[in-house]
Amino acid sequence: MINLHSAIALAAVFLSMANAAATPTSSYLPQSSPTYLPKFPAQAGVITQWPPADPSAPLPSGALPSSVPGSIVSQTEYPPANLPVANAETDPNIIPIMKLIDWNYVPNATVTYPTPVSSGLSPSMDPSYPADDPYCWWTYNQCDTPKISYIPPDITICPEPDTWGLTYDDGPLYFTTPTPENAVYAEPNFYDFLLNHNNQKANLFYIASKILYAPVAAQRGLNDGHTICVHTWSHFSMTTLTNAQVVAEFYYSLRMIKQVLGITPKCWRPPYGDVDDRVRAIAWQMGLRTIVWDQDTDDWQIIGDQVAPTASSITYATANKTMAGYVANGQGGPHGHITLEHELSNATIILAESWLPTIQKLYKTMPATACNNIAQPYWEESFVYDIQGTVAVSTNGSTVGGGSSTTGSPAGSTPSISGKNSGANLQAMGSIMTLVAAAVLAALL
């Protein structure tokens, strides 16, 4: 018989073993649907499933209904646009989420990285960052496979050859000061173009604070059947932000998209590709999988409306040449490509519209999620999209059911995300807890 003090000490050892057994060293941390978002009423005229309830009904086109800031969502519910949340550590919306995250699984990457675009400092020249890249910092050397084993690699390519993963960042496009010259490029111009060119679908990575000023355009993007993903609240380099600010970027993005569109994305893209394992781990625990790219058109650097000149600015001709090279040389390789394009300015829209017909002729053209067989990119399971192959997967890459046709009607169960060996971990935890109980019981006999 052991005394109670010894039993408690033994129990602590067993609990430590239980924690070790529960650590998914060879599988991914389980995810679950975000429960921290408010319950919002459905917006009138916004679809609640895909395919739509009436697939034969024509998709919307033409001019958008008029809306002004505050007509759909109040700005007072959100932080200032285009800026990281300055008071994130004391924000009453963020504090509860900080408590939900298991920080044992978030690397302590305390290095202050330079802002890739505005600093003018090459990431490779940052003297404060270790040369062995311990945090898989994409901006440093395009690392996309985390150094931690419990979150998946970034999605960077289309696995099938001759496939073009179509993605557009920084929307929805609107102009704070419309003019006769730039108004023709604001939405729904580009969405009408995609609709009129084989009803082409794409991933739209929305800056959430832009939705505040163009909510009806965002709703049009969803209603058209495009796959909406998070592109953060303020479009700042994520590795430069505190943990609380990173959480706030995701929270307010998910909240805005949920309030205006009624969906909760599982996908996100870091501005400038600036992500490391710290940010990835926070995103993953908030229900988001990281998507980057393997082809950058550099269209975001073209000087034009809403794009001021910087040291890294390029001409339209330069971006056009880059795109021409990708289109000409991307066929016949071992895999397809995810290409970075934007609905950011008049110049980016002109470039996208000029090349899309050629891309459609040469490649199987689809959203990056579709070419990676992700049929359900939202936590709302009523949205089921077309995919490249015959087997749908969750955003962690695991099979989630039977075959899926290209009409967006999967066979078998719907995707859900969980750790691959979570059952084994729970079983191990149960066995160890039984030993703990036995040890305490022995002390009391």
Q: How would you describe this structure to a colleague?
A:
The protein has 445 residues and is of the alpha/beta class. The chain has two domains: 4-24 and 421-444; 75-403, Glycoside hydrolase/deacetylase (TIM Barrel), CATH 3.20.20.370. The chain contains twelve helices and ten strands. The strands form three sheets. Strands 1, 2, 3, 6, 7 and 8 form a six-stranded parallel β-sheet that branches. A two-stranded parallel sheet has the order 4-5.
Sequence-ordered SSE layout with sheet pairings:
Blueprint lengths: L3 H19 L72 H6 L37 H4 L21 E9 L17 H8 L6 E4 L1 H4 L3 H9 L3 E4 L12 H19 L5 E2 L8 H9 L3 E2 L4 E2 L19 H14 L7 E6 L3 H17 L1 E4 H4 L19 E3 L5 E5 L18 H23 L1
Parallel strand pairs: 1-2, 1-7, 1-8, 2-3, 4-5, 6-7
Antiparallel strand pairs: 9-10
Helix pairs in contact: 1-12, 7-8, 9-10
Give a brief rundown of this model.
With 445 residues, this protein is an alpha/beta fold. It has helices spanning 4-22, 95-100, 138-141, 189-196, 208-211, 215-223, 243-261, 277-285, 316-329, 346-362, 368-371, 422-444; strands at 163-171, 203-206, 227-230, 267-268, 289-290, 295-296, 337-342, 364-367, 391-393, 399-403. Helix 7 crosses helix 8 (277-285) and helix 9 packs parallel to helix 10 (346-362).
Which descriptors would you attach to this protein?
alpha/beta; 2 domains; six-stranded parallel beta sheet; two-stranded parallel ribbon; 12 helices; globular
